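With this grant's support, we have settled on a layout for protein records. A representative record follows, to show the layout.
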Amino acid sequence: MNPLQRKKDRIDALAATAAGGGDIPDAGHVSESGGLSLIGSAWLRLRRNPVFLIGAAITVLFVLLAIFAPLIAPHNGTTKYLISQVTPDTPIPPSQKGFPLGGDDQGRDFLSRLILGSRQTLIVGVLATLAGLFGGLVLGTIAGSIGGWVDSVVMRIVDVMLSLPSLVLALAVATLFGRPSQWTLIIAISIVQVPIFARLLRGSMLTQRASDHVLAARALGVRPAAITFRHMLPNSLGPVLVQATLVLATAIIEAAALSFLGLGNPDDSSAEWGQMLGKAQDLFDISPHVAFWPAGCIVVVAFGFTLMGESLREALDPRNRR
């Protein structure tokens, strides 16, 4: 029997089965699978993105180093181990046994202080970012949910703050305090970050105000506070949280800049990378390594947070979904 005849017989058999009310032979089926949320699809792209993996690896290593710094540091960061082997106020070159990076101008182990300084750098960056995020959430929620003249007043204040360069604004705030400390550093940097979060959250909430589910909730008589905190705010936090990872890198750099200018914690018993970099400016001609290592750590950590934040932003952008 030729192929054409076989095909004709097959069609006739199917037609006869259908006409007789019998079961049609199984022609296959499509397996059911659940849909992917925005976060789920973003994670599928992130775990294949080498840029995100590099940034996440740097960030995780930095956080682990900061958490376990006292256990990892080979020596105490305040003990003057090498004070008898060096001319006063002259850093020790990295040639001493057991001290691979040498010592600072006080004879303290430079590697240990570099490791211990990661904790203070992380504390300043995280606390400043969290404080700026909280302030931005408050202003952005008020402006985005109430609108009207309240929105105009809040946004004009935000515009004035954004019109100033961030480092200049942080410098102006830090100089208002009579005695610099770690907390004045955190407050100055957090104030700089507030308008960034406020404007971003306000834009997201304005988008949510015109969405169908918010209009439906209003039509059903749901209270405005419930609409704001149950519907608008949770759906507006995604871009803000992604921005926080980028702002954290900026906070670390700005904290280092203020410490370099002498507006950070004056007590050098608690090492911090920006503070170490500021101390090294007078010693750079004779011992450049005391400036190279803390500056390199700041650049690498900020680079890691930036890579991770940019990858998260691109992955969570619905326009980039495939």
Q: What stands out?
A: Residues 49-320 form a domain with the MetI-like fold fold (CATH 1.10.3720.10). The chain has twelve helices and no strands. The mean pLDDT is 79. The radius of gyration is 30 Å.
